[in-house]
Design a protein that fits this description.
four-stranded antiparallel sheet; 4 helices; 43% helix; 18% strand
């Protein structure tokens, strides 16, 4: 993307907002540096608002509430895409934001997958340590076999419950951001290389 992004109702803007209260050329967002942006009103009829106040020119951050007239703009997704999105003019704003949200949600799946693997290893390691400790402690008890069988069953059952809960949570969260179907046990790195969902063909990366 260039350092200037034009937003308005007209098709000659980079992002086209289909709202009658938005002017043909409503505002522009300019990148000053890696973390510095400004938004400028371009003489719109109904105004550009930042955090509820009408502005002509102001600094813009990802946490600011930006609106063109009464139309809310996702400043977080727009600013985060500045460095790597090659945007042509005439892109419908809603389509752009929907795709950017998918890219963002997919990137977050790495955190979900890594945490799942970490928690799974922790549960299995905990079970191994408990089993080892039980065997060491019971080696001094006369009737080792019966006692060990009873206690180890309790440990194993508890681990199975933890693993089941972990799997259910993983199934709820490790889903395609396009069709919301569970992605199975496929490693995140594999999906990232492929770049799309087998089920709905949604693109996950630029």
């Amino acid at each position: 993307m260039s350092d200037v992004l034009l937003i308005g109702r007209g098709n000659d803007n980079h992002l086209v907002v289909k709202d009658e209260k938005v002017s043909s050329k409503h505002c522009c967002i300019k990148k000053l540096s890696d973390k510095e942006f400004i938004v400028e009103d371009m003489g719109s009829s109904n105004g550009t608002f930042l955090n509820g106040k009408r502005i002509m020119r102001a600094a813009l951050t990802e946490t600011d509430n930006l609106s063109l007239a009464a139309y809310a703009i996702e400043s977080r997704l727009i600013l985060s895409s500045f460095d790597y999105t090659s945007l042509k003019k005439g892109v419908v704003y809603e389509d752009f934001i929907r795709q950017e949200q998918i890219f963002h949600d997919f990137a977050n799946l790495k955190i979900t997958y890594d945490q799942y693997q970490k928690d799974k290893r922790r549960i299995m390691k905990s079970n191994t340590l408990k089993s080892t400790g039980l065997r060491a402690g019971l080696s001094f008890i006369p009737v080792v076999g019966v006692a060990l069988g009873i206690l180890s069953t309790g440990v194993t059952g508890n681990v199975q419950e933890q693993l089941m809960e972990l799997e259910e949570d993983f199934k709820r969260n490790y889903i395609c951001p396009g069709c919301y179907k569970f992605l199975g046990a496929e490693p995140f790195e594999n999906m990232e290389k492929r770049g799309f969902c087998f089920a709905c063909k949604t693109k996950w990366k630029r």
